[in-house]
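Annual report, structural modelling task.

Input specification for the zinc ion complex:
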Amino acid sequence: MTSTAPALVPASDEAQQEVVDLCAELIRFDTSNPTSDERACADWVVARLADVGIASELVESAPGRANVIARIPGTDPARGALLVHGHLDVVPADAAEWQVPPFSGEIRDGYLWGRGAIDMKDTVAVMLATARHFARTGTRPAREIVLAFLADEEAGGRFGAHWLVEHRPELFTGVTEAIGEGGGFSYALDDTRRLYPIENAQRGMAWMELTATGRAGHGSSPNTENAVTDLAESLTRIGRHTFPVRLIAPVRAVLEEAARLQGVDVDLDTEDAEDLETELAKLGHVADFLQVVLRNSANPTMFSAGYQTNVIPGRATARVDGRFLPGHEQELIDTVDALLLP
Ligand SMILES: [Zn+2]
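The model returned the following structure:
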């Protein structure tokens, strides 16, 4: 065998079932951030580790905001520890928008459904199942492994990763590398090769609050300075805007390598936006998950104005989730400025 990539090793049925069972249980904890907290879920994680004799520490950064840290000793102390981290919180889910109750952890049509099923209670379940398998079989990894089950990833990490690094840095002593979410999903190139992309860049966040002021008045009178109308028009322009593709060097490097591995020719230097889309489509899956790092974006997400149907408010506010590629922050701000009504 001269293959440089591992062949796909099918997991045993029991191992797979354990991951599914753990993930379903994790989903049943409503850890919506910011409307709920992680404490009950974190207690459950501690118990699942304790089941097999793994000690862990539950660290609360604020009441209910709970993180769990465990260490699995390695056989080679000369090597640095590896941090494997996942988050226990999820973004909120409106049950009315779901075909399956979002916190049911139900299996339907061969799929496990629920908020967090892919972000990222699935990974948390794999972390737990692997640690439990190690403990049950007496398997010792070469490197020491630090497992971190974190709070508050979805709202900025103030009560999770950020807090731990600031207040409990000793929990990560000896760690030289870390693996977490992001980087894209792994996928099979063919029967023997699987790609595990490594994240090499991220977009920055530019969350914006927009305020329109106009002339307050009665809802029955004509009004050409209606703050709600003006802000809605600006938001529509922002939301419908197509930002141009900007191939930054780290993204280009991933695309070129993916093309090489897949044996396809792509022309990334074409000036024409449509041609570029056609070229990228040749890369299939890899181009799909790189969509979010091809360009800046700005999506209106919140709108607030008024208090009564027959009163035109003098003011309306909205929030926009802006994201910019490294080096393209000013471009994003200038674009949004230009899209706003004067
Ligand atoms: Zn996530």
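The first helix runs from residue 13 to 28.
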